[in-house]
Amino acid sequence: MRNAIRFAAAAGLVVLVAGCVSQTRQVSPQAKRIVSDGAGGYVLPDGTRVQVDQAGGFTLPNGAYVRRDASGALNLPNGSRCLPEGRSGYACP
User: Fold this and answer.
1) pLDDT the model gives residue 86
2) How far apart are CA 91 and CA 33, in angstroms?
3) Of 57, 55, 33, 30, which is closest to residue 44 (Cα–Cα)?
4) Is 58 helix (H, G, I), strand (E, B) or coil?
5) Strands 81-84 and 65-68
6) What are phi and psi of 12, to 5 degrees?
7) From the CB of residue 82, how many other CB atoms can be counted at a distance below 10 Å?
8) How many CB atoms are located within 10 Å of the residue 35 CB?
9) Residue 56: enclosing H or E segment and its boundaries?
10) Burial bucket for residue 34 (CB in 10 Å: 0-12, 13-18, 19+)
11) Cβ neighbours, 10 Å, residue 58
C-alpha cells in the first residue's frame, strides 16, 4: 500500500512538472506577433507597417519609439519585451 501511494505521488509530481516545463517553452497562442515584411520593416499586430531604423528600432504611429536591445529583443514603450523568433519577427506578450 505504501508503494502504491509513493507511486501515485511521484506520478502526480511528474505530470505537474511536465506541465510547467511545457508552458515555459511555448509562446502563448494569445501572443501578438511583429512580423518582418521582407523589405526592411515590420508589420505590427494591427496590420500597420513600420520601417526599421539603423539601430534596429522603429517609431510607432503614435510617435512612441520601440528600441531594440543588445539581446535582440524589442522594448515597447509600455515596458513589455518582444522576443525574437528567428528571422520571422517577434513574439510579444
Assistant:
1) 87
2) 5
3) 33
4) strand
5) unpaired
6) -65, -40
7) 22
8) 14
9) none
10) buried
11) 19
